[in-house]
Write a structure and sequence with these properties.
Length: 208
């Protein structure tokens, strides 16, 4: 399948690690293979680190700072090309949530949330930004993810205006890791196929 234009996918990390973590490197490579297949070899995947991480701090910055840093990373990625690329904001946990906020004000084709942190540290639902989205979003969620109980997400999804899909990782935790009794490679491959199908749907709908 060849897309109408290249993809530019910006992958943001979660709160506990940076772009150099094994998880981020592995999924960067997997996503690069997906967008290359669906959008051609000009497609690319870029990653970013938030200011607190670059400064060596453990506590994440406040949300407005995270959003603006994400916005600057997107502007830089767009400047590097490829020209005319369709942008997908992807992120692990916090990175996906910040990407959702950025998608409210930036023109992007889609959002990809790898373990969306629906429930905050004090139990409050982080659903307001999801209700404000207008671009397609794919949630990839594990059944053992305490930060996103699937029953709560299923209560939010019908209230969303944006086209939205969910791929459930059976046995998956917040990092989409499955128990040793299951095949991690098979689980990851299923996620890869789901993301590829999602991008194909965005492509058919003319996203971006």
């Amino acid at each position: 399948m060849t897309g109408r234009a290249p993809w530019l996918l910006l992958l943001a990390p979660g709160a506990g690690a940076g772009s150099d973590s094994p998880w981020m490197r592995a999924w960067r490579d997997r996503l690069a293979a997906i967008v290359s297949e669906s959008g051609g070899t000009a497609s690319r995947v870029e990653t970013l680190d938030y200011p607190y991480r670059r400064a060596g701090r453990k506590a994440p910055d406040k949300l407005p700072i995270l959003i603006e840093a994400h916005r600057q990373a997107l502007a830089d990625a767009r400047a590097r090309g490829p020209a005319g690329a369709r942008v997908v904001l992807a992120g692990k946990s916090m990175g996906g949530r910040v990407g959702c906020h950025l998608a409210l004000t930036e023109s992007v084709a889609a959002v990809l949330c790898l373990g969306y942190p629906l429930r905050g540290t004090k139990g409050a639902l982080r659903d307001e930004v999801l209700l404000g989205l207008r671009v397609p979003v794919l949630f990839v969620q594990g059944t053992r993810d305490p930060l996103c109980p699937l029953d709560l997400l299923e209560q939010v999804r019908p209230r969303m205006t944006a086209p939205n899909e969910i791929f459930v990782v059976q046995g998956g935790n917040h990092s989409l890791e499955v128990p040793r009794s299951q095949s991690q490679a098979a689980s990851d491959q299923a996620v890869i196929q789901a993301i590829g199908a999602f991008l194909a749907g965005v492509d058919r709908a003319g996203g971006g």
